[in-house]
Amino acid sequence: MQYLLAAVVVLPLLGAAAALLPAPPGLRGRNPEQAVLRHGVTVSGVVLLLAIALAAGFDHDHPARMQATTDISWIPALDVRIHLGIDGISLPLVVLTALLTFLCALYSYFRMPEGPSAKGFVALVLVLESGTLATFAVLDLLLFFLAFEMVLIPMYFLIARWGGAGRAASAWKFILFTLLGSVVMLLGLLVVGLQSGTFDIVALATDNGSSLSHTTQLIAVLAIGIGLAVKTPMWPLHSWLPDAHTAAPTVGSVLLAGVLLKMGTYGFVRIVLPIAPEGTRTFAPYLAAFAVVGIIYGSLACLALARTGAKGDLKRLIAYSSVGHMGFVLLGIATLTPTGLNGALFANIAHGLITGLLFFLVGAVKERYGSTDLDTLSGRTGAALYGRAPRLGGLLAFGAVASLGLPGLAGFWGEMLAMFGAFEPAEGLSRPAYLTFMALAGLGTLLTAAYLLVVVRRVCMGERPGAEPDVPTEGDATPPEPAATPTAPAPAPALADVQGCEFAAWTPLVALTVLAGLWPAALLGLTDPAVQNLLGGGS
What we know:
Blueprint: H1 2-19, H2 32-57, E1 67-75, E2 80-86, H3 91-110, H4 118-137, H5 141-150, H6 152-162, H7 167-196, H8 201-207, H9 214-231, H10 240-247, H11 250-275, H12 277-306, H13 314-334, H14 338-369, H15 374-377, H16 385-388, H17 390-403, H18 410-423, H19 431-461, H20 500-518, H21 521-535
Helix pairs in contact: 1-2, 1-4, 2-3, 2-4, 3-4, 3-11, 3-14, 3-20, 4-5, 4-6, 5-7, 6-7, 7-9, 7-10, 8-11, 9-11, 9-12, 10-13, 11-12, 11-13, 11-14, 12-13, 12-19, 13-14, 13-18, 13-19, 14-17, 14-18, 14-20, 14-21, 17-19, 18-19, 18-20
């Protein structure tokens, strides 16, 4: 187990280096591009198998304890160590990252996005996977920062070189926002490490802020929180996200929504809350307020994009929906209760599964129609999905109802538990304020249902064609023309429905969305003991 986690983190990095060789070792294809894409599938598949083995060997009777640990001195002068480990909080995120990366590699093998050579694409995806896995596995503040930053460069190039219209500006916006946030976060991490005398996350969590003054905790929470909020993204630091998603290739959007956004909320739970509890309690109501504003704002933005006649883009709409869904995660964290935190962690995983599936589906729709413009996709052009590609339309409707939080699917439990946490927040927090936050979050769920049902009606079912007939006015001198005999509209040509490679890439996400909705205890049984331990300042 000790070496298994290290292998999960390092293997994608070694695979990325191997992908840049003249010919990936041990693999052949019809051409070099196919060989390197096959290499990406193989490496990410092996990482997924190792992650599953890690989950199978995990001691589920003690999920609050750090397991599969590695602790090696790296920079003795600063007491910086290569310290790795997982518990019930990080294990689901590690498995989710490995799964989504493998599915993206598999999808890209058959649907490689237009751009430069496949070598660079595969190498960047694997570096991105390694950095994300490291973020969830490292237990040292400086290593966390390095892993946190490691994912920025590959995502920048995936958007800038393999993205769509406006990719250069979107990539620059992404990198500038996240880098500026990271600079502020680094200052906060250094304040914590230098003031407490250690950068070890486990030791700092055990200390539970006793070695940090109240002022130091406030500074640390504000600085670290800003950097994490940008990556989450929290309103009003979210404006880079819709542009990045709209311009990114399909697999870039899947990885960005499925795992990269989780790095910010994971940092709040793993670092901010246990290391600076007093500072977190001070800022918690403000975090909750920003969270519910994000929920309402994201839902209203989606509703505006979804309405008939708006210049709406389906991919941009789903990107804005992430602002609202991640608002529920932040609200759960801001309650500082086991119920709210468990809801936040559950919502993290559910969002990764559902939104990852939605971006896969939108990529397939764009490939068939050549556009994600809602007017182009609506039935006014005879293009309703139910009539032209019924299985694809059914999956899109499934993803929509899962995203709106239908009971029995994964999206329901996280948001419900976050609102339950707000109903009874931690001691010392204003209950009337949190009840207001809960009511606003509940309004957000109604708005979410509204815009997603509009999307299903427009894209899957189609708009009712035809315009109102002209009615002559009293002053018309010319009598109206006799009505023409109505003719039945020509049926729209069928589209390619869900194909084998798409079925293989999407089925695990559909199955896990249903499984998590019907059996939430499988995930909550992992997170709850670890959350209780974290709130209690245990090791």
